[in-house]
Amino acid sequence: MFAFLALTLQMGHTVQDRLEDYWTKMEQLCTPFYGQTMAHARYCHILHFLHFMDNNRNGDGRAGDRLWKIRDLFEIIRTNFSKFYSLSEHLAVDEVIVKFEGRVLFKQYVPKKRKCFGIKMFKLCDSTGYTCDMNVYLGKDRQRAAQHLTATHATVTILTRGGRRIWS
User: Fold this and answer.
1) 66-102: per-residue pLDDT in tens?
2) Please, which pLDDT band fits residue 22 given cuts at 50, 70 and 90?
3) Distance CA 103, CA 139 (A)
4) Cα(136)–Cα(123) distance, integer angstroms
5) For residue 113, which of 127, 100, 124, 102 has the smallest C-alpha distance?
6) 0.90 exceeded by the pTM?
């Protein structure tokens, strides 16, 4: 599992168009690290069966939570991002589209982005590029609309106050 996680994290630094391109033998795209660490078929097998939540669990407050399958993992990641790093005074809030080709209700289409289809996230980053906090956009927030806050204002407020909330 450590090799799988290492490869997955490294994919964020060595960006390819397709998953298969990380294991390609073509001279222009070849990155031997991936093939030496784990076979492509093994990586895909682990990726296919990787779960973070038991699908058979009933209730547990997941009725209105669109991110229930990875909620615990997402919160651990967010907590550790802010726990192990001291923020500077130079911060930026940015919208990021994470490429996703699966089926979820909150997948977004943003034609001006390079990756048009994906999951929209808002990230609070330091001037070094370190992600200090993040939120997943899961659709229109009815509570925010009732409070008459603009989407931009609510996003910046929640991220800069360290709000542990994901919109639903």
Assistant:
1) 888 888 888 888 888 878 777 788 888 888 888 887 8
2) very high
3) 15
4) 9
5) 100
6) no
